[in-house]
Amino acid sequence: MSAPGTVAWLARHEVRLAWRDWRSMLTAGRQRRGRTILAILAVFLVFMHGVAASMLPRYAGAGDIDKASLVAITGCMVLAFSLMLSQSLETVTRAFYARFDLDLILSSPMLARRVFTVRIAIVAVSLAGMAMLLAMPFIDVLMLRGGWRWLGAYGVVVAMGAAAAACAVALTVALFRAIGPRRTRLVAQIVAAVIGAAFVISLQAAAIMSYGTLSRFAILQSETVIAGAPEPDSLLWWPARAVLGDAAAMGAVVLVSLVLLALAIVAFAPRFGEHAVTAAGATHPVRRQQRSGRIRPAAPARALRRKEWMLLLRDPWLASQTLMQLLYLLPPALMLWRTFGEGTTGLVLLVPVLVMAAGQLAGGLAWLAISGEDAPDLVATAPVPARQIVRAKIEAVMGALAVVFAPFLAALVVAAPLVALVAAAGIAVSGAAAVTIQLWFRAQAKRSHFRRRQTSSRVATFAEAFSSIAWAGTAALAAAGSWFAVPAALIPLAILGGVRLISPAAK
Amino acid sequence: MSLPEPAVALEIAGLHKRFDRPAVNGFDLAVRTGEFYALLGPNGAGKTTILRMVAGLLRPDAGAIRIFGVDALADPVAAKQVAAWVSDEPMIYDKLTPFEYLEFVAGLWGVDAATAEARSRELVGWLGLAEHAHERCEGFSKGMRQKVALAGALVHDPKLIILDEPLTGLDAGSARQVKEVLRERVRAGGAVVMTTHILEVAERMADRIGVIAAGRLIAQGTLDELRARSGQGGASLEDAFLALVADQAAA
After folding, report:
1. Whose C-alpha in A195, A491, B90, B245 is 20 to 30 A from the C-alpha of A359?
2. Got the DSSP string for B100-126?
3. 3-state class of B64 per DSSP?
């Protein structure tokens, strides 16, 4: 047992909390569901290994380290790093603002520096752990096909977790100092969303402009980029070489990342306590709403829809999440603009992107509107049947979805009416499926507790993602005029059926 | 010639609710219109559970609840139409202004716009919120939030107001404003049922006081009746309350 107040003791406490939090997220707080969740996790990993096997035919067996491989691997690493940085930025911001136990800890005689040293390290470890879980199928497949040298990729994932946490800490502190505690939270969320999406979108935008395709790998595999890239012995490729099993490169990459993390801890942990206290003292700015002061007439359902829309519009967390969704719609918009009037072939590619985005956006909105309710007692004691309340919330979500996707559909109608029809149906079905999943997994709590989607059931989150992907595939086939769309639709329906069986609503 | 019996605002009979252990155990109560009723009890006595069942937030295992003659279990929507619930933790929307909040509540209860507007202005004025009526609630103090929640409870002109520790966290000035508003509603013919740990509030405001322990009503009556029952004539309500609860615990 470590002595109370030491870094080891604190780390043990934090790890215990993190583990219980993670477990509770997976099991939605139900102890008995542990085995079911483990089984689902196992199925998921097997499935992802299958996906990885189908996606990675080319680089696995590469014997020589050529420029094409290095470009492709580095591209994937930048993509992964941007996502990790985005995630860690979100986590570090939470360390400033989420009060949970911070008031207790900061009012104790414990050194704040010690507390935040542990917390920053935990951010790095949890980030690397999650990334490893997601990367595992791909690394395993690469090892099976290309040998043990791919094992180095695990080390690089750890290094990336440490580096991402270090960068996130530096970025958050910089934001805090530059714009103050009031704005940092929202701006950090938006920066996290933009960082997470920027690299993918840039690749896609470049691919669309150069090759007229949405594939982000088109640029990375292009002769121009490969020809213009530095030679294989350049320092720039060391991370990629580390992934490929170069021991020296791997040692250097891991060392540099750990040094970065240590520097971030040494430089910023002592000030974190101070920043956290400042963040706690940041008052809400007084925001006056420009209204005539007249009450607008409304039936209960309309009052509920209006309230939901007002709250959705005024939610900064949601704004950052929606911004992320909308950023991902930029490439399709670019594609639509570029191929407008050039036939329907290119436009068909847009349909799955729109359908997938609709499912994800609807899930996010439904999560907030259906599960997040700041005044549940008020709504529950109103003389309105519960069914009508839920229906109004669903209408609010689907209405918001319609507003976001209407411009795309309007442009598609002009260019290719049939494709637009399929896209509209796909958006509606994918959105409805995501909302339905959120309904089955609803967990009533205050909206402010929903800053993290992770507080939702992981099963629901994954089910929502798989459902959106499956509907996107179905819509793509339908837009291409293939009858295979009919049997393909059975896949998302089967997903929904399976999710319903294991959902709390079925109990 | 005797006066007609006042109508019963709230009637509870044989109410039972069990969680891991019995929380409410055969609770009976009748509150008349125009009456301010305070429910007292030690922590865990079942006060909040009872009020949540009356408000339709919890389903009892057994028993009956009638609000102005409406069976609240058989027809909850009709019962809710005439009732309002205010909890100790003000549940309002941070991103709405008090005026928008009142507009929303009025919509939920189907109050027409003109009436809702007139009542909103009146309540906002009474509760000293006029200056902040168009500011988002996110920066409000606990007292202001509680006043917004109370205004929401009153904007649809309920006949029965159910309050769970409504004065917790309020400063003296705010507490006085809230008490005056509630007294006004009782004078206007409504009924108020309130739990409180502040015995002075019960002593000064309530027409009748009920003492609950282990999920049962162990005594009720006016302050003098409770003093007499506890054998503590001339004592404060606190002494009477502690004596009654101690007797129950000993039994």
Report:
1. A195
2. HHHHHHHHHTT--HHHHHHHHHHHHHH
3. strand
Tell me the DSSP string of A143-197.
Answer: HHHH-GGGGHHHHHHHHHHHHHHHHHHHHHHHHHHHHHHHHHHHHHHHHHHHHHH
* Residues facing residue B217 across a β-bridge: B212
Nearest by CB to A314, which of B55, B95, B139? Answer: B95
Identify residue B70 by its one-letter amino acid code.
V
For the cut 80, the answer to whether the pLDDT of residue A342 exceeds it is no
Q: Do B108 and A382 touch (CB under 8 A)?
A: yes
Structure tokens at A94: 């939470």
How far apart, in Å, are the Cα atoms of A60 and each of A201, A231, A240, A251, B23?
26, 21, 13, 22, 64
CB contact under 8 A, A383 and B78: yes
Taking Cα atoms as reference points, which of A277, A261, A356 lies closest to residue A102? A277
Pairwise CB contact (< 8 Å): B134 & A289 = yes
Strands (E) across B137-190 are located at 160-164
Nearest CB partner across the interface for B134, out of A293, A297, A298: A293
| B220 backbone dihedrals φ, ψ, rounded to 5° | -155, 160
A241 three-state secondary structure: helix
The residue of chain B with its CA nearest to that of A291 is B134
Of A426, A429, A425, A319, nearest to A365 by C-alpha is A319
CA distance A216 to A218: 5
Size of interface A-B (CB pairs under 8 A): 119
Alpha-helix runs per DSSP H in B155-194: 172-187
Q: What is the ipTM of this complex?
A: 0.76
Mutate to test the interface with A, among B70, B104, B117, B132 (most CBs of A within 10 A): B104
Would you say B205 and B66 are in contact if contact means Cβ atoms under 8 Å apart? no
Q: A418-477 pLDDT, tens per residue? A: 989 999 999 999 999 999 998 888 877 666 665 554 455 667 778 888 898 899 989 988
CB A138 within 8 A of CB A56: yes
- Residue whose structure tokens are 């904007």: B155
DSSP state of B211: E
Radius of gyration for the alpha carbons in chain A, expressed in angstroms and rounded: 24
Q: Which residues of A5-40 are buried (b: 16+ CB within 10 A; e: fewer)?
A: eeeebbbeebeeeeeeeeeebbbbeeeebeeebeeb
Nearest CA in chain A to B114: A295
**Cβ contact, residue pair B85, A289, below 8 Å:** no
Cβ A381–B135 below 8 Å, yes or no? no
- Rounded to a whole number of angstroms, the CA Rg of chain B reads 18
The CA distance from A320 to the nearest CA of chain B, in Å, is 16
Chain A residues within 8 A of B75 when measuring between CB atoms: none
Q: What CA–CA distances, in Å, run from B114 to A150, A295, B83?
A: 72, 7, 21
Buried b (16+ CB within 10 A) or exposed e, B97-115: bbbbbbbbbbbbbbbeeee
pLDDT one-digit tens code per residue, A206-250: 777 766 666 666 677 777 777 878 887 888 888 888 888 888 888
For residues A197 and B45, what is the distance between their CA atoms, to the nearest angstrom?
54
CA distances, B6 to each of B35, B36, B198 (Å): 10, 13, 28
Would you give the DSSP letter of residue A344? S
Instruction: Give the residue carrying structure tokens 């691997």.
Output: A73
Model pTM greater than 0.80?
A: no
**What tokens appear for A50 in the block?**
């299958």
Distance CA(A464)–CA(B72), nearest Å, equals 38
Which one-letter DSSP state was computed for residue B42? -
Side chain identity at A122, as an amino acid letter?
I
Place of tokens 């008490």: B179
Mean pLDDT on A126-146: 84
